Structures are given as structure tokens and as C-alpha cells.
Amino acid sequence: MGEFNWTKKDLLSLYDLTGEEISFILDTAEEFKKVSQRNVKKVPALRGKTVVNFFVEPSTRTRMSFELAEQRLSADIINISADSSSLKKGETLLDTARNIEALQADLIVMRHPAPGAHVLLADKISCGVLNAGDGSHSHPTQALLDIFTIREKKKKIKGLKVAIVGDILHSRVARSNAWGLLKLGAEVHFAGPPTLVPKEFEQIGIKVHYNLKDAIEGADVVNLLRIQHERQKAGFFPSTSEYAKFFGINEETCKYLKPDTLIMHPGPINRGVELDSSVADGPRSVILEQVTNGLAVRMAILFLVAGRVKK
Amino acid sequence: MGEFNWTKKDLLSLYDLTGEEISFILDTAEEFKKVSQRNVKKVPALRGKTVVNFFVEPSTRTRMSFELAEQRLSADIINISADSSSLKKGETLLDTARNIEALQADLIVMRHPAPGAHVLLADKISCGVLNAGDGSHSHPTQALLDIFTIREKKKKIKGLKVAIVGDILHSRVARSNAWGLLKLGAEVHFAGPPTLVPKEFEQIGIKVHYNLKDAIEGADVVNLLRIQHERQKAGFFPSTSEYAKFFGINEETCKYLKPDTLIMHPGPINRGVELDSSVADGPRSVILEQVTNGLAVRMAILFLVAGRVKK
Amino acid sequence: MGEFNWTKKDLLSLYDLTGEEISFILDTAEEFKKVSQRNVKKVPALRGKTVVNFFVEPSTRTRMSFELAEQRLSADIINISADSSSLKKGETLLDTARNIEALQADLIVMRHPAPGAHVLLADKISCGVLNAGDGSHSHPTQALLDIFTIREKKKKIKGLKVAIVGDILHSRVARSNAWGLLKLGAEVHFAGPPTLVPKEFEQIGIKVHYNLKDAIEGADVVNLLRIQHERQKAGFFPSTSEYAKFFGINEETCKYLKPDTLIMHPGPINRGVELDSSVADGPRSVILEQVTNGLAVRMAILFLVAGRVKK
Fold first, then answer.
1. Do A48 and C67 touch (CB under 8 A)?
2. What's the confidence (pLDDT) of residue A3?
3. Residue in A46, A98, A104, A126 to test binding to C, most C beta-carbons within 10 Å
4. Which of A48, B129, C217, C231 has the fewest CB atoms in 10 Å of its CB?
5. Looking at residue B2, what is its pLDDT?
């Protein structure tokens, strides 16, 4: 992995990283992927370090993936959920974080509904802060695992056409992927109903489509976002069946794909809405490999941040 | 433990096991029972293995027992409850399980309300699947710990008269015990009100009684099932006090027991309903030993399934 | 740490301990404080021991602190909350505890709303019982960490003037601190509105004030208790702003303090009620050091009780 030394205390957003830093995380993750393929899936890298998983919003898969990554690195782990935190008693977020710091925790993995909450903490406390999702803003480890999966399959990122389809407006996955992919030289396309895909994204070099075909035709990667039923109730689109008809990937719309287009999804899938089962379980799908790679990427970033070289 | 090699990937039901396999689990559990009696109650048998405890229905004692068994085997452990799972977001059970598999988990310990849910998963995913209770159908580790306790006390199973008393209709404990005990040559008696003890069980060789005395007189073992208050509300019996009068074990009905009859209960006990305190805490009771043995039995099955010999 | 041998199975209340025993816990905690300052914050002292955290009342900071202390001692850990316990199914507390004992747990750390619940268990089961708070009665590890912090800063306890201000009536922190501080020779002052500070405390040698100035003037330590909004609703004082005016520590009331008075708070802080931010975050505050010391004190008591010398 060359001469690169990791110096950042936190992982807040891919927007803050250079292409070189992103590539270094991915290189490190390749090494950690091997750990989970061994018979004894464990290394002592974080032994005697304390990681606090602080999930103010509920999460299953991200929490599980982080927790397992921490276990495979032999860290000591404390889990705090929104329900069990003192935030409910009116404690400020900063006081809660300072308490965690006073317990000599090394790292805080936080999911929080407020964009920027992580920046505040990272600035005020000495623990490393890893963003596990902040509202609609950023979800850097999801983007890293997506990019890792693409790089592993396509052997490069530069020049690839990557289409991200769905509820872009509310999606931290879309934003984080876009930042990372653009830094590594991919061509990023967003598609979905106009209510869910702000035209403004064109200003940062993303191509915006209100038509599925234009976005996915010739794409190397199609990343589908989960359609939340709440959005339909809020009037962003008329019905899930209409959404599926115009923006769902199914046998019919598959005809625009190349044979080797990768089908990705951050999960959990709404089968029959944004993605049909025939495609989700078909040969183009790398959805379960994304899950496997998520673990490797999270082990890598935990390892790098915990062992950073002080500048 | 002789030449026997464990080859099964899953523990779904005692119905699927041979008497020889059941005995082999019990023999293995005898060894693991010693671990919990040591000063350092821990062995490295599952170090670097990942066990996911996936409890779609709540559970205290089974979950605690499994989790502690896994810790004493040094496994890495992830807990998922119904609340915290993606099932709530509409993810299919199979997708959730495939995600767990993609995290390279080795074993899934699952409690699920739907009989057969475990069979589906065991068939579709490569992780070992251990049934920690599926609706009214099966609860194999509970039956194994009951049979272990009987064997430890009586030095045999064959030929013993075992009475199981209570809400047989809804009881996975009764079914699992019956399958295991019949395979090992015991005589199984079910007793309770006619609304709660289907006559059909006679077809598989169980003796059905609607009268407590006939079931427990001369019995070597009396296993009491917990009476759930919901059943009374649903009209299965007129009142808990009437239930206690006709089917409760108390000073009065104890007169039908032999001095060395074992009193068993899967817990938690409704003191004064199916079992009086004088008997629950009396010399015939092995209820707390069942708890101790549950840990040994679960360590054994986790160990065997994780280390199975591929056929 | 001299010739002292720890012989107590349980930590129920500081009321039960001698001054010598309290000092021995504090001396031991000094050693454990160093563990959390190392790069590898972990010792194998409780390896292969099982600790059950049984929190019948919710708790964030005490639970986190105990859980982390247990991890840093390498214990195996089971967490049970009120929601997940069988108490909800009508199991008696004693039956639940006997089940935990039957799993060969070594220690139970319990928070329970009923004063005396711990005494019952300690008497009936062989596991060590550590009181993590029982109603308004006792919270010995909180008092130990408070006294540890005072001793660390002031190099003594004897002769110090310690003021505890707020809702004394409902406060286990106040009672526990008072017992410990009196045994070690400090002068204890309670202050707050008459509805919240029973005059009866004078009978055990505490000075009671209904006026903030008298309590804090010349004090070496001022320990502020959290004002719960429920108390105001129940009519114990007219409004939180009136409470803050008469009993809050702020720039104004700070003038009665010595330059080296320690400001303490068990957390979480109601900023602007019992304590203003300028003081909470100011040079006299040792609030976050209390959190750090809590971990050391809990490691010490877990270690002593687990390794006690049988008398």
C-alpha cells in the first residue's frame, strides 16, 4: 500500500477526502476482505480500543456491519441507541459526546438525523468520529463499499458510466456516491421523477435525467435507491406501481442494460418496486457482494482512523 | 465420545435426528458442562466465528442462555431483535438471512413465530441454522436440555414414564420433548384439559389423559408447562384457579408422585397455577438444574454444528 | 495497597462499609485508572467470569460505565433490560435472579426501583450483587466516584466542607455520598427548597440549609443534583426558573465559592437550571473527570468482589 500515511481523525464525508485518500481506504479494505474469508475471522488490530456505536436513528444493516467489523478487529464495543441515550433527558449532543470521550473511548460511530452533527463533534472531541449516516446528507461508508465493489468488478472507476436511480432528493447514498465517484473520474447520472431529482445537481457535474432509459443505457453500473413508502404518501409520486412502471428495473427495462452492467442496491430491497426479483437475484446483481464488501471497508476505515499518524 | 462424526449443518427439530445423534449431543454437552464449573468459564472453540442471534419473537432465558453459551465458546456475536431488523421495512426473511450470510456469519440462532421458517433458511443459505423456537412447532434445545437433565438424574431414558402436563396444544416444548423422548425409548404421557390436549397425539404413540392422576401416578418425570393467561381469556379453560385445582402440582397432588419423581418446568413459573412454590422449591424439583444444563447443551450444539464434518 | 483483604460478596450501600473498606476501594481504583490511560485499555482480570447487567430501570451513563469497566476487565457480559426480562411475564425477581445464578454468572449489576431489592438478592443467591441504583435509596458506585474525585483533587476527605444541592428527597446520590463522606470525616451540607430537603437528615450529622449561600460559602466541594422536571409538575417547587434563581449555580452565585471549590454533577446536566454553562464548563468543574473516574471505581469494585477472599 505504498508510502501513504493516514492522518485524518474522522470520516465525515467523502467530500472531504482526496481521490488518493479514497483509493487508500479501498486498498486497505482489500487486505481486510481476506480476514473475513479465513477460518478464524479475527485480527487483534483494535484490541484494547473502545468503539462506541451511537445510533440516534435506528439502523440494522449499517449497525450490524460496523459492529461485526469492530468485533473482527477485537475492539471493545458499547452500543447506544436513541432510546437508551441521555438525549431523551434533554442532554445536549455535545454533552453526551463529551461523556463518551471521558470514558476514554477511541472512536464514535454515529448515525444522526442532523446533517453536520458529526462535524460539530469531530471538532470538539478527541475521539475519532465516523459518520454512519446523517440525514439526507452523507453516508460515506456506504459509498466506499459501493465504489469498492465497482472497482473490484470493473478494475477501475475512471471513465465508467454510473447511473443512480430513485429518490435522489432524500438520499445520502446518492450524494456520497456522487462525491466519491466524481473524485475518481467516473461519469455520474441521476434519474428519477422531477420531484425527487433536483436539477441543481448538474452544477457539480452530474447528469440529471427524468427518463430511465437515458440514464441506464450503456451504463456500467446501475445503483437503485430504495423507494420509501412515506415519500409516496407525501405526494412525491402518485403511486408505487406508477413509480415501478417508469423507474423500476425489471425484465422489460433490462433490455437497455449491457450484459455486464452491475446492478447495485444499498438494501433493503422493495422487490417489485425499484427492482424486480428476476434482476435482484440475476447474474448482473452484486447486491450481496456489496454487503460482504461493506464489512471490509468498515474494518479498513476503523483501522486507519484508530491507528492514524499524528501530523 | 467414540467414532461418531457430526455432519448436520442445522438443528431444526429433534424430529429430524436419530436417537444416536441425540445421544451424541448429550454426550458432548456433558463435556461442556464442566467448562461452566471451572474458574475460567471459557474455551476458544468458536474463536473468530460469528454467531447471529436473530430473535423475531422476544425471549429472555433462551436468548441469554444462547448468548452466554456463545461467549463461553469465544464466538463473535451479533444480536438482532424483531424491532431492530429490516423485516419492519418490508424486507423478506430470506433477504435478511442472505444479508447475514453475506457478512460471512457462521451460524444463525433464530426464534421465529412461523413453523417452518427455519427449514426455508437452512435450505437456502450456507450458514448453520439453529432453531430457538418456531411458533408452537419446535424448540429442540429446550427438549435437549430437558432430556439431558433426565438422563443425568436417572442414568437412562429408555423405559421411563414422562408426563408432560398443561397447554400441549400451543407448546413447542411438549412436541420437541415427545419426539426426542420417543426416539430414546421413553413412555410419553400428555395431560391437560381436552381443549388443550389434542387426542391426535395418540397416533404417534403418546398416551393422552384428561385427568392429572393417571398421567403422573408412578411417573419418573413430571414436566409442567407454563399456563399463559392469554389462553384463559381465549376460553381454553374457565379460570386459572380452576386450572390449578385440576392440573396444578401442589402438596395435594404430590401424593401421586414417587419420592424420586423429577419435577421439571421450562420457566418462567406461574407460582400457584401450574406449580405450587412448595413443590417448585422442593426436593424433587430440578428446575434450576435445567437452566444450568441448557447452557451446556447449547454450547454442545453450537460446537458440533460449527465444526461439522462435511459429508 | 497493604495487607487488606476484600471479603464482601456484594456492594449494596456505602452505609454497610467501613471507612477502611471505602478507602481500599479508592486505592484499588487508582491502580485501575491507569489501565484506561494505556494504549491497550484492557486487563485479563475477569476473563472467563460472567457479569449480568440487569437494569430494571433504564440508565445510560451508569450502564455504559459498568459495561465498559467489565469489558476492560475482559469479562463475559449479558445485558438484560426491564423490557427484555421475564419480570414482564410475572416471574418473581427472585426467580429471575436464581435463573441468572443457574447460568453460573459470577456477578449481577442491578438497577431496580425498589429500595432493598438488592439486599434480598444478595442474601438468597451466591452471585455477587452490585447495586447500580435502587430508587431513592442508594447508588454506591456514584458516591465512590464522587469521593474518589474529591480525594484525587484535595488529597484528603477528612475535614472538607461538601455541599450537596438540589432534590435531596429523591436522591440516592445525595444519600450515598453523605454516608461515605461522613465515614471518612467530611462535613456534609444539604441545601434546597424545604419541600426537597427533609430536616431529619440533621439527626445523622448533616447540616441542612434552605438557603444556597450558607451551604456553599467556603465549601471545598459543591455537588449539584439534577432537577427532574417531573418534580416541578408534582408541585415540589413553583417553576424551574424560580429554582434556578434560588438554588442554581451561575456567575452570580459563584461569588460565594472559593477559587478552588470543586463543582461536581452526576449528569446529565440541565444547563441553565441547577448549573449554568459558564460554571459547568469552567475551571472549577470536574464533571467530566467524574465520568472518567467512574470507570476506574467500577473496575475496582468488580475486581474486588469477583476476587474476594472467602472468610
1. no
2. 66
3. A104
4. C217
5. 54
Report the pLDDT averaged over residues B234-249: 92
Rounded Cα distance between C70 and A48, Å, is 12
Q: Which of C40, C42, C291 sits opposite A103 (nearest CB)?
A: C291
Partner-chain contact A102 C289, CB within 8 Å: yes
Identify the residue with better confidence: A302 or B234.
Answer: A302
Q: Is the pLDDT of residue B311 over 70?
A: no
pLDDT at C130 over 60: yes
Give the 3-state secondary structure of chain B: CCCCCCCCCCECCHHHCCHHHHHHHHHHHHHHHHHCCCCCCCCCCCCCCEEEEEECCCCCHHHHHHHHHHHHCCCEEEEEECCCCHHHHCCCHHHHHHHHHHCCCCEEEEEECCCCHHHHHHHHCCCEEEEEEECCCECHHHHHHHHHHHHHHHCCCCCCEEEEECCCCCCHHHHHHHHHHHHCCCEEEEECCHHHCCHHHHHHCCEEECCHHHHHCCCCEEEECCCCHHHHHCCCCCCHHHHHHHHCECCCHHHHCCCCCEEECCCCCCECCCECHHHHCCCCECHHHHHHHHHHHHHHHHHHHHCCCCC
In chain C, which residues have their Cβ closer than 8 Å to the Cβ of A103? 36, 64-65, 68, 291-292, 295
Is A34 near chain B, with CB under 8 Å?
Answer: no
pLDDT digits (tens, 9 = 90+) for A217-275: 999 999 999 998 778 788 888 899 999 999 999 999 999 999 999 999 999 999 999 99
Per-residue pLDDT tens digits for B122-137: 999 999 999 999 999 9
Mutate to test the interface with B, among C71, C89, C127 (most CBs of B within 10 A): C89
Contact B78 A60 (CB under 8 A): no
Rounded CA separation A141/A301 (Å):
8
- Check if the beta carbon of residue C189 is closer than 8 Å to that of residue C163: yes
- Concatenating the DSSP letter of every residue in A221-251 gives EEEEPPPPHHHHHTTSSS-HHHHHHHH-B-T
Q: Which of A91, A92, A103 sits opposite C68 (nearest CB)?
A: A103
Q: Say if B58 is an interface residue toward chain C (CB within 8 Å).
A: yes
**Edge-to-edge strand list for the sheet holding B128-134:** B76-81, B50-55, B107-112, B128-134
According to DSSP, the β-strands at A128-134 and C187-191 are unpaired
- Among chain A residues, CA nearest to B90: A270
Chain C residues with beta carbon closer than 8 angstroms to that of A86: 60-61, 267-268
Query: Nearest C-alpha of chain B: how many angstroms from A121?
Result: 26
C269 touching chain A per CB within 8 A:
yes
- State residue C58's pLDDT score: 83
pLDDT at A4 over 60: yes
pLDDT tens digits for range A61-93:
999 999 999 999 999 999 998 777 777 777 899
Q: Which of residues 142 through 181 in chain C touch B, CB cutoff 8 A?
A: none
- Residue A65 exposed, middle or buried by CB count within 10 Å (0-12, 13-18, 19+): buried
pLDDT in tens, C203-261: 999 999 999 999 999 999 999 999 987 787 888 888 999 999 999 999 999 999 999 99
Query: In what helix (H) or strand (E) does residue A108 lie, and over which residues does it extend?
Result: strand A107-112
Residue B77 with chain C: CB contacts under 8 Å: none
ipTM value for the complex: 0.93
Which of C99, C101, C108 has the most B C-beta neighbours within 10 Å, making it the best mutation to test the interface with B?
C99
Measured between CA atoms, the residue of chain B closest to residue C84 is B60
Q: Domains of chain C by range and CATH?
A: 14-138+294-306 (3.40.50.1370), 140-291 (3.40.50.1370)
pLDDT at A1: 47
